[in-house]
Design goal:
Elements lengths: L4 H10 L4 E2 L12 E11 L12 H4 L8 H14 L1 E3 L6 E3 L4 E11 L4 E7 L1 H4 L3 E2 L6 E2 L4 E10 L5 E3 L4 E9 L18
Antiparallel strand pairs: 1-5, 2-3, 2-5, 2-11, 4-10, 5-9, 6-8, 6-11, 7-9
Length: 191
C-alpha cells in the first residue's frame, strides 16, 4: 500500500521517519516526498567532454561485471578521479548522453516496516532527464543520502543546482516488518 501525504506527515511528526535537514511542507505531495539534489557529483568520463587526457585509461577499461569487487573498485576509482563538490549558488552542467552520480541533499532513515522507491519528477522526465537507471528501490532500514544515477537523454545541456527538487520518494507499507533492517550492498560506495 502506498502511503499518502498525510501518512508521511504523521510518520515524520512521530519521529519514525526522520529527514535531515527537515522537510519543508512544500516537499510533501499527495503520495510522495520531493527530494533535493545534494552537493556531491561524480561524472563517468566516457560521455563527457573536456576531461584531462589521463582519464582515457579509465574509459578504455573493460569492467568484468561477474566480479562485484572489481565493479566496486571501478566505481570508487571513477568517483575519486572525477568528483566535484559544489557550494551554494554553483551549478553543474550535464550534456546530452552524459551520466553522473549525485546524492540527495536529504538523508533519512526508513523504519523496518516501510520500503521506498525513488522516481524522477515529470517536469524533468519530459526534458529527457533520468534520475535513476534501474535501482529505484530503497529497502527497509535504509539510513543516509540516496545516490542518484542521472542520465541526460535529452537533446540539450541542462544546468543542475544543489537544492533543486529533482526526484521523489514514494513510500510503501510492508505487509509485515522486515526482521532486520537491510543495508545496501553498495553502501560503502556513497560519497
Amino acid at each position: 500500500m502506498l502511503l499518502s501525504g498525510n501518512d508521511i506527515r504523521d510518520l515524520i511528526a512521530s519521529g519514525r521517519l526522520p529527514f535531515n535537514p527537515p522537510l519543508p511542507e512544500r516537499q510533501i505531495g499527495y503520495s510522495s516526498v520531493d527530494l533535493r539534489l545534494g552537493y556531491n557529483f561524480a561524472f563517468y568520463p566516457s560521455l563527457t567532454a573536456g576531461l584531462p587526457a589521463n582519464v582515457g585509461d579509465i574509459v578504455s577499461q573493460i569492467i568484468d561485471l561477474g566480479d562485484e569487487s572489481r565493479v566496486s573498485d571501478f566505481i570508487k576509482s571513477v568517483r575519486q578521479a572525477n568528483n566535484w563538490t559544489l557550494r551554494d549558488g554553483e551549478y553543474i552542467d550535464i550534456q546530452p548522453r552524459a551520466f553522473l552520480l549525485a546524492e540527495t541533499l536529504e538523508s533519512f532513515t526508513l523504519p523496518n516496516d516501510l520500503a521506498g522507491r525513488v522516481e524522477g519528477r515529470s517536469i524533468y522526465a519530459r526534458l529527457g532527464l533520468t534520475v535513476h537507471q534501474t535501482a529505484p528501490s530503497v529497502k527497509p532500514g535504509w539510513a543516509g543520502q540516496l545516490t542518484l544515477e542521472i542520465v541526460n537523454n535529452g537533446p540539450f545541456t541542462y544546468r543542475l543546482y544543489p537544492g533543486m527538487r529533482l526526484c521523489q520518494l514514494i513510500l510503501e507499507q510492508l505487509s509485515s516488518p522486515a526482521p532486520t533492517p537491510e543495508q545496501s550492498t553498495w553502501s560503502n560506495l556513497r560519497f
